[in-house]
Amino acid sequence: MRPRPKKTLNMPKTVSNSSPIIHLAKIGKLDLLRDLSEDLFIPPAVYEECIVEGKGRPEVEIIKKATRWMKIRKPQDGNLVKLLRYEIDDGEAEAIVLALEINAELLLIDDAEAREKARIYDIPVTGTLGILLQAKHEGKISSLGDLLTKLAQTGFWMNERLKAWLLKEAGEG
Fold first, then answer.
1. Which residues pair with 15 in a beta bridge?
2. CATH for 27
3. Across the strands, what pairs with 126?
């Protein structure tokens, strides 16, 4: 068993949607989530999206192993979940409600519309790119540019202006 790396961020309560989990697993960097928070929560709909709906994809085995340290927790406010599902998908809705209920300090979510919904509730958000940029600043990855290329190859979309900004912020552009 590998020793747990020392954490440089103090974020004891974090909730994740499926996108950061899936994309970080695809590029071999899912361990960055473990480094981010001792208490990483995912709702059941996120587990479904990552494991059940993703069945047969190579990253699913990596994610299954990671669910040993992720905490699966069902949000209690079913009415709010239903309301949010009118505009965003199941995993995003459950993740936002769970983040509210446990008073999470961070919500990991990539979808722009879902991020806007989370901000309405004053939930701090970041996504896959924010996690990678933070990891670069902390010396946990050597090249953000290489990982952005890998992400693009997995179908993760970002515009060129954002990519250029990220590389500049990482000291690579």
1. 41, 107
2. 3.40.50.1010
3. 108
